[in-house]
Design a protein that fits this description.
The complex is a heterodimer. By secondary structure, chain A is an all-alpha fold. Among the domains of chain A are: 80 residues, NADH-ubiquinone/plastoquinone oxidoreductase chain 6, subunit NuoJ (Four Helix Bundle (Hemerythrin (Met), subunit A), Up-down Bundle); 48 residues. Chain A has seven helices and no strands. Chain A starts with a helix and ends with a helix. Chain B is elongated and about 55 Å long. The chains are: A mainly alpha, B mainly alpha. At the A-B interface, helix 1, helix 2, helix 3, helix 4 and helix 5 of A face helix 1, helix 2 and helix 3 of B.
């Protein structure tokens, strides 16, 4: 009973918040609603018994990725509305609706294959985090290490891309910046 | 009773919202938001399948998707900052440099 209430509440709220993310003209509104939707998605994970995944979703998505976005927001001018030239909005809505319909039809089709077996079954009486840890560090050890190297590469790339010319301001006018720089050079 | 189909339908709807955002948006930052929405939708589907088939593989793939999303955001935001320094705007129409 509570599961049903939670499921319908979370799904309605998530869809609404993500619609705001996609439709909003203001970057701050879009980012805030995206963060709220991600918190609710971790709620889905907790309902589904994937506790560790829910915690990771909260820490990585809501914590790290949203913090990264809000840092990036400081570089761009986030207060003014975004003006976008939409060439053909009707076509986009039709395409989006059609793809939604096709996906829903695909997923509601019954699965006839009865021979689907669990490759790494969950164990009764063992916590989700323990189960995940055992599978992750035995069967998925190499992908785990590759993911670690990928994160390292991403970190270096982020530092190098964003770190160049960090002493210059992006949003203020160029004249003031040049003035500051010439003053610095004079010293 | 909530079944697997419920979760898959919600996931499909959220994925379509993200797809619509990718088609509709002209601002690169907003395109990134729409991509995050799509990745989250796929994560829901993986977690639901993992729960209803009693299999941990779905959760594993969801973890790797989260790792990929994190690195995508790190590199992507670096590229966005470089683009903003160079062009002063994140609009795709302003960034189009090739006339065709």
């Amino acid at each position: 009973m509570y599961e049903q209430i939670a499921f319908y509440l979370f799904s309605a709220l998530t869809i609404g918040l993500f619609l705001i993310t996609v439709m909003s003209k203001n970057v701050l509104y879009a980012m805030t609603s995206l963060a709220a939707g991600m918190v609710l998605i971790s709620g889905f994970f907790f309902i589904l018994g994937a506790d560790f995944l829910g915690v990771v979703q909260l820490i990585v998505y809501v914590g790290a990725i949203m913090a990264l976005y809000s840092f990036a927001m400081m570089f761009f001018d986030a207060t003014k509305d975004i003006k976008e030239k939409n060439t053909n909005p009707a076509l986009i809505f039709v395409l989006g609706g059609l793809s939604a319909l096709a996906l829903v039809l695909m997923f509601t089709a019954p699965i006839y294959n009865e021979s689907i077996q669990a490759l790494y079954p969950m164990h009764e009486g063992v916590g989700n985090a323990q189960d995940v840890g055992i599978v992750l560090f035995t069967k998925y050890l190499i992908p785990f290490e590759v993911a670690a190297v990928m994160l390292l590469v991403a970190m270096i790339a982020g530092i190098i891309l964003a770190g160049k010319k960090m002493d210059q301001s992006l949003t203020e006018d160029k004249g003031a910046d040049d003035e500051i720089l010439t003053q610095k050079d004079a010293k | 009773m909530i079944g697997l189909t419920h979760y898959l339908v919600v996931s499909a709807l959220i994925f379509s919202i993200g797809l619509m955002g990718v088609l509709r948006r002209r601002n690169l930052l907003m395109l990134f938001f729409a991509t995050e929405v799509m990745l989250n939708a796929v994560n829901i589907a993986f977690a639901a399948i993992s729960h209803y088939y009693n299999d941990l593989t779905g959760q594993m793939f969801a973890f790797f998707i989260i790792a990929i999303a994190a690195s995508e955001v790190a590199v992507g935001l670096g590229i966005l900052i470089v683009l903003y320094k160079k062009h002063g705007s994140l609009d795709l129409d302003d960034l189009a440099s090739m006339k065709g």
